[in-house]
Design a protein that fits this description.
The longest helix is centred in the last third of the chain and has 15 residues, at about 315-330. By secondary structure, this protein is α/β, with parallel strands linked by helices. Helices cover about 40% and strands about 15% of the residues.
Length: about 325
């Protein structure tokens, strides 16, 4: 939530389509470029706090929106609003509203999916790409989670997306919001390997909530930071419903027609790209992320960090240093 990250730089912006976005907006200094941060699930601009502080101190401009359904941004109930092409148009409009021509774009988790579509529909806005944990995602056409689970069961010994069925269920938002202690234990596990037991198998998330499992904080998150997460996803702020709509829209194949209409020359880029993979994420498997990235970007650098899914939090200093080095070498010198 932008108001929690940097209250003095929290901006509400009403787009031409009537949607209001809440963002952290910090002006650039010394003619340095802007960095656009696109978060994932269940998150908000608050989970970019370490990067926002770091890059703004170096003089980079920062635009970190609470994405649709999150934080201080609108939370429509209609799934059509959560189509990736529509949300990429929102981001394009947000850049226009703030007179930002081009950005270095950084995505994590679902933010990487959104960045992928921004690359397909508005590549002219991007100076360079940074994908954290989840790499570029090519247009998928008709999405079938059961086929993915069958394939990953054979390949890796477990269904990678077993949790998607729970997230797509009608009662998921209420369960996750009312059982917030279990939700935070599920989302931010102290041991990232617990995901393979409690998230990936079919029915595992339902059992997690039925058993009312809770757990300790990971060592990279303070108690006050966790309390802020609970505030962001409190019933008063809409809970987890908006974020879950990203899954529901994708499982309803609302992105299929838009994906099919992406021109073939928009499916690859020669702009500099960086992928930072997480060795301990059993969902975003590094080899799979790298394969997709290399098919997309001809000029790509791939680095790995020994961490779980929340790379920008668990390895904040390393991420900041690696991204800064990439930007300085590929964009600001020569």
């Amino acid at each position: 939530m932008a108001s929690l990250v940097s209250p003095g730089n929290s901006k509400l912006t009403r787009l031409q389509n009537g949607t209001t976005y809440n963002s952290v907006l910090i002006e650039s200094k010394q003619d340095k470029p802007y960095v656009l941060f696109l978060h994932g699930f269940p998150s908000s601009s608050y989970d970019w706090r370490h990067q926002i502080y770091f890059f703004s101190k170096l003089g980079y401009g920062v635009l970190a929106p609470d994405l649709l359904g999150y934080g201080g941004t609108d939370k429509p109930t209609g799934l059509e609003c959560y189509k990736l092409k529509q949300m990429s148009e929102d981001i394009n409009g947000l850049l226009d509203c703030h007179h930002i021509t081009k950005v270095i774009a950084i995505g994590h988790d679902w933010g990487s999916f959104l960045l992928s579509r921004l690359a397909n529909f508005h590549p002219e806005r991007i100076l360079a790409y940074v994908f954290l944990d989840v790499g570029y995602k090519p247009p998928s056409g008709n999405f079938n989670v059961d086929i993915i689970n069958e394939l990953t069961q054979r390949e890796f010994g477990y269904p990678m997306f077993g949790y998607w069925h729970f997230f797509n269920s009608s009662g998921a938002a209420e369960i996750m919001t009312t059982q917030i202690e279990s939700s935070t234990a599920l989302i931010y596990p102290a041991d990232p390997n617990a995901v393979k037991e409690h998230v990936c198998p079919l029915g595992a998330v339902q059992k997690f909530y039925q058993d009312e499992i809770t757990g300790p904080l990971p060592n990279w998150m303070s108690k006050s930071e966790m309390e802020n997460h609970k505030q962001i996803f409190s019933p008063e702020n809409g809970g987890y419903r908006g974020g879950l709509n990203w899954y529901k829209a994708h499982m309803a194949n609302l992105n299929a027609d838009d994906d099919k209409n992406i021109p073939s020359d928009r499916l690859q880029t020669d702009k500099p790209a960086l992928l930072l993979v997480c060795t301990n994420d059993c969902v975003a498997i590094p080899s799979m992320q790298e394969e997709d990235m290399r098919a997309f970007a001809s000029d790509v650098t791939v680095e790995s960090l020994d961490c779980g899914h929340w790379i920008q939090l668990e390895k904040a200093n390393e991420v900041n240093e690696m991204v800064t080095s990439f930007i300085e070498k590929r964009l600001l010198t020569g």
